[in-house]
Automatic annotation (TrEMBL):
Residues 10-80 form the Chromatin target of PRMT1 protein C-terminal domain. The lineage of its organism: Eukaryota, Fungi, Dikarya, Basidiomycota, Agaricomycotina. Residues 13-40 have a biased composition (Low complexity). Residues 1-80 are annotated as: Disordered. It comes from the Eukaryota. This is Chromatin target of PRMT1 protein C-terminal domain-containing protein. InterPro entries: FoP_C. Residues 41-52 have a biased composition (Basic residues). GO terms for molecular function: RNA binding. Keywords: RNA-binding.
Length: 80
């Protein structure tokens, strides 16, 4: 079986189909460049990034907090 398609060269090419005109253009598959690994700091996008460092100050004891509160109340006591 032989099929022959005859096209008139004076007529313009048929318009592209609706599906090809509406569909998004195919993205070019470029290999991602290897970037230096990020350590810490603010992330560029999305979630993630570095974790916060631990508290560098030593934790106060209850006795330290009580002493600070006594100093505060003694210095701010109203004079009546």
């Amino acid at each position: 079986m032989k099929i022959e398609i005859v096209v008139d060269p004076t007529k313009p090419a048929p318009a592209a189909s609706l599906a090809s005109r509406v569909a998004p253009a195919p993205a070019a598959a470029a290999p991602p460049a290897e970037a230096a690994p990020r350590t810490g700091g603010r992330p560029r996008r999305g979630r993630g990034g570095g974790r916060r460092k631990g508290n560098e100050r030593p934790q106060k004891t209850a006795a330290d907090l009580d002493a600070e509160m006594e100093d505060y109340t003694a210095s701010n006591a109203p004079t009546a």
